[in-house]
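Sample intake sheet
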Amino acid sequence: MREKFSFHPVVWALLIGTVFARGASYMALPFLALYLSNSHEIHPIWIGITIGLSPLMGTIGGFIGGYISDRYGREKVMLITVFVWGLVYFGFSQASHIGIFMALNALNGLCRSFFEPSSQALMADLTSKDKRKRVFSLRYMAINLGASVGPILGVYVAQFSSTLPFLFTGIMYIIYGITLAVMFNRFSTTNTSPILKQSMVDALIIAWKDKTLLVFIIGGILVNVGYSQVDSNLPQYIQNSFSNGVVLFAKLIALNAILVIILQIPLSLVSEKWPVLRVMILGSVLFAIGFASFGYATTMVGMMVAMGIVTIGEIFIFPSTSVFIDQIAPEDRKGTYFGAGQFRSIGNFTGPIPGGWLLQDYGGKLLFSVIGVVILCSILFYATGARNIQKQV
């Protein structure tokens, strides 16, 4: 068992740091809309625009950040980004004008889009191929562990001051940056991958011409259209369809986080020998079944079963996306490919719009049935990607 989880010290630093950094950010970001409304009395439309800027900039910036990490080195990009990230949260605590909040949240999304492809590429650089799926599964578990603890801490800390969660998050990112600087200085991470010599435009053209990457991104967009309903239309549907709907939704989110933490490692160990696209196809099928079930469940138990199915699908799909990109990316363009993979986030900020229309005009059954079909369509693209890989072998 020790051999199964024997990774480079920097990889462990990134995994442990992910728990604390994500936990800190989840102390603040879920409450940003309430903070803007209650503390600054900002109009809901401007709040919506402000919140939406982060995923929008993340989608745009992912490719740029990944390319820069290939061209100039992962460590430089990660260190600069994480310290800027800390300053962003300090800025949230001091800002008072909506324009500043918009700029800060746009920068927040940009920092995430720079840091994540670089850190995933570095994890791949420092890990043998047979252990990379395990590393990415642990990374996903670390994200969910932080996400499950962070909001609880945020509620507690905010009782003392509404700005305190943002200050605390900023401090955590600065500590994370100092820790990474020490680890990079102590343990060698250089010369782990070739330095990319191409211009950004050339790199984008080459990535765009990679049909396997392209169909993967399209499939990921469809999956994310479905998953975006969890934060947008699912809570509205539950609130209108169940008594104590807010409590039920909170229980479903807690169940999701707990199941990810409990099942991530065992399911990863079971599936790591399967072809990665087969794992993603299985996850898409479970996703489709789970989301369709939301529209037909009439009891709390039924909704929890549906969330359980969705969660198992999530465990199969999301860590596997990192493994898949790692497998198809050339050694000198891993950051670029991980960054290009961020285009899947298009589904995250487009999905709620047609979903809200379907919920409003046709109800939850049709909404979640359509979502199930949309997710199933991703299988066609994943299967195409699998055939492309087989042709290359």
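Comment: The chain has two domains: 1-193, 195-393. The chain is about 80% helix and 0% strand.
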